[in-house]
Amino acid sequence: MTSVERTSDGTGESAHDRECYRCDRDVAPARLFRLVSEPPAALSHDYQTGERFCCPDCAAAMNLSEFSERLKARARRGANSSDG
Ligand SMILES: [Zn+2]
């Protein structure tokens, strides 16, 4: 049997502010990146899917943040210095 952490679903004020797992910075939950590491099937009996939350700065530091197409388009329009 595995003990599964139950997340409070439904109503219930959970003023549980999440923080970045890397820099321990307090970040509003709405601004946290969700990183999910899913093990391959061959290792699924040794590892379980992990979930971490980190701030945009750390996501960028790990090259895990991708700018949305909207931002890319805006950058493309604004920057004429180099095309490529
Ligand atoms: Zn961070």
Task: Give a quick rundown of the structure.
The chain has helices spanning 56-61, 69-78, and strands at residues 33-37, 50-54. It is an alpha+beta fold and 84 residues long. Mean pLDDT is 81; it is low at 8-15.
Structure in words:
With 84 residues, this protein is an alpha+beta fold. It is built from 2 helices and 2 strands. The protein has a domain at 29-77. The protein has helices at residues 56-61, 69-78; strands at residues 33-37, 50-54. A two-stranded antiparallel ribbon has the order 1-2. It starts with 32 loop residues before the first strand and ends in a 6-residue tail after the last helix. 7% of the residues are buried. Bound molecules: zinc ion.
Give structural attributes.
84 residues; alpha+beta; binds zinc ion; 12% strand; 2 helices; two-stranded antiparallel ribbon; single chain
Low-confidence stretches: 8-15
Strand line-up of the largest beta sheet = 1-2
Order of helices and strands: EEHH
Strand content: 5-15%
Identify the bound ligands.
Answer: zinc ion
Shape estimate: flat
Count of β-strands: 2
User: How far is the first residue's CA from the last residue's CA?
Assistant: 54 Å
What's the total helix number?
Answer: 2
Structural class, by secondary structure, is: alpha+beta
Tell me about the largest β-sheet.
2 strands, antiparallel
Calculate Rg over CA atoms: 18 Å
The proportion of residues forming helix, as a percent range, comes to 10-25%
